[in-house]
Amino acid sequence: MSFVRIIRAGVFAAAALAAAGAQAADITGAGATFPYPIYSKWADAYKKETGAGLNYQSIGSGAGIKQIQAKTVVFGATDAPLKGDQLAKDGLVQWPQVMGSLVAVVNLEGVKPGELVLDGQTLGDIYLGKIKTWDDAAIKKLNPSVKLPSAAIAVVRRSDGSGTTFLWTNYLSKVNAEWKAKAGEGTAVEWPVGVGAKGNEGVAGNVAQTKNAIGYVEYAYAKQNKLTYTGLVNAAGKVVQPTVAAFQAAAANADWSKEPGYRVILTNQPGEASWPITGATFILMHKQPADKAAAAEALKFFAWAFEKGDKMAEELDYIPMPDAVVKQIKATWEKDIATK
Amino acid sequence: MTMAATLAPQREEAMDRAGALGAFRRSDAIFYWLTRIAALTVLGILGGIILSLVIGAWPAINEFGLGFLTTQRWAPQLEPTPVMGALGPIYGTLLTSFIAMLIAVPIGLGVAIFLTEFCPMSLRRPVALAIELLAGIPSIIYGMWGFFVLGPFLADTFQPFMIATFGQIPLIGAIFAGPPSQLSLFNASLVLAIMILPFITAISRDVFATVPPVLKEAAYGVGCTTWEVVRSVVIPYTSVGVVGGVMLALGRALGETMAVTFIIGNSFKITGSIFAPGTTISAAIASEFAESAGLHQSGLILLGLLLFVLTFAVLAAARLMLMRLELKQGK
């Protein structure tokens, strides 16, 4: 008898939960881990303002793409943008939501942040294992005034597949022909040398405690962990330091309108002030959403984020999209996404 | 009249007994089926796991075939078809588990023997408790310790010493070839050894305690030293249990994921040096699965299937050894 009662109570509880869940109707999204901090910050502020919640699962870009293709979420998020033909095939709309930058970080005794300067060719050769020691002629030539040890370079890279690695290898492929031929670009590649650490925090931690190490992390991690970042030579041949102004310069020089789905990868952008390793993170939604009301809610959230989220983004070292691009994106929503 | 009067209650009683027996039989049958279903569920789950692994791995099996086992190159990003080989992860899995066992088995048995033969009573419980607590520490804690404490120590102190001392000797030198690295196969092996130590110790201690005191006392009585008692009485008497504990530990070492992913360096290249970064099957899957798709993901699932087969083979080998031992002992 009591057994039946327990079951009955369970059924009621489940029904009550389901009803509560249906009432809340959070906007559901899944994908890239790189923008997770800012998406959750926006979601918090948005919920306070409007009462509508966002349920974003940072399960990785590849998984996010799969989820939106399977229509289990209202939007997907990816760091590596889909190509135009893929978007057309799946009936998806893609746009950049926010941008971020990578820096190269080193652990060299006596070298201060920004003191060491590297260029794309040299970085590629280091990651190829061709440049083996810090006092190599190529590094010396770029840094005549820096005292460099004759120690072996300990290369650190990501072990997990990630959008960060995609940006990094995309940059190296653009600036180092041999890298492009041997390793190429992707969220996980065939690394010629180095040890793999898990996550941005893993790479940051490993570089911080390994003498003569080099690694790459999102700018926020270098800042938080007080790592020694390097200056970089950009496409215009100028030495730039990782500053918000340099990140924004890279975004400003991009031509967003010519690629379908705003598929612009902001590495190695022209412009004298541009930081060379910058990238946007993208949102994917269906042109004909299964749940049109939910899609409208999601777009409301993204519009709000474009309007009121810039300051929050900058606080977390992300770069807001330029206003002109936001205008284009909103026009795309109007034109392509059926919300009624 | 009297006959009928006495028969009726008897019949009733007989009916009752039949009814009661029937009820017992029914409840026994229900119990039998419940336990049988429970047992079959386990088999069903096992079969389901194998089936879903095979289905998930099928595209990779088709593409790479047996070459998957012998290829060292791991280039999942290559267009149009990736190159993927499991040799690196298999090598890393076997090597780290081997070194871990090499360290943990003698120490674990030593601790167990000390606890049962030499240890004063007052110390026995605290030491045993401490070892069991070791088994309860989550593996991620071991990973962090290996990353922040053991890794730097090995790279700055131990590895340079080993490389300078043994690195020049031909043949053996290759095993200790430089440069030192914080994240390495050796670091992972050491952490694995610490992780499996409690299993070996706890189980060995328990089985050592099952040796009848009369046997040991008889051995001491004819003048055996403690070493001789342990070697000739305790170990032979308990060998089955000890081997079981060791195999359980090996199973954990083969499949350990989180701690190893943190500290092994995740490199698919085989260098032959234990101080170089490497990877294991479970570490490779944990690292790459989230951002994988298509053939890449299928390849990772195939790796999982390989680990399944590997662990299964180890356990089967252990069973076989145990059976042999039992036969030899005439049990």
What would a concise description of this structure say?
Chain A has 340 residues and is of the alpha/beta class. Chain A has helices spanning 2-24, 36-50, 61-69, 84-90, 120-128, 137-142, 163-175, 177-182, 199-209, 219-224, 244-252, 292-308, 310-315, 323-336; strands spanning 27-31, 54-57, 75-78, 92-107, 117-118, 154-158, 195-197, 213-218, 228-229, 231-233, 239-240, 278-286.
Q: Into how many domains do the coordinates of chain B divide?
A: 2
Rg over alpha carbons of chain A: 22 Å
Contiguous uncertain segments of 5+ residues of chain B: none
Using DSSP, what is the number of strands of chain B? 2
Largest sheet of chain A: 9 strands, mixed
The strand line-up of the biggest sheet of chain B is: 1-2
- Would you tell me which CATH topology of the largest domain in chain B applies? MetI-like fold
Please, what is the oligomeric state?
heterodimer
Annotated CATH architecture of the largest domain in chain B: Orthogonal Bundle
For the largest beta-sheet of chain B, the strand count, sense and barrel status come to: 2 strands, antiparallel
The computed structural class of chain B is mainly alpha
Write down the secondary-structure element order of chain B: HHEEHHHHHHHHH
**How many angstroms does the end-to-end distance of chain A come to?**
51 Å
Q: What is the residue-averaged pLDDT of chain A?
A: 87
- Anisotropy-based shape of chain A: elongated
Provide the gyration radius of chain B in Å: 28 Å
Helix tally of chain B equals 11
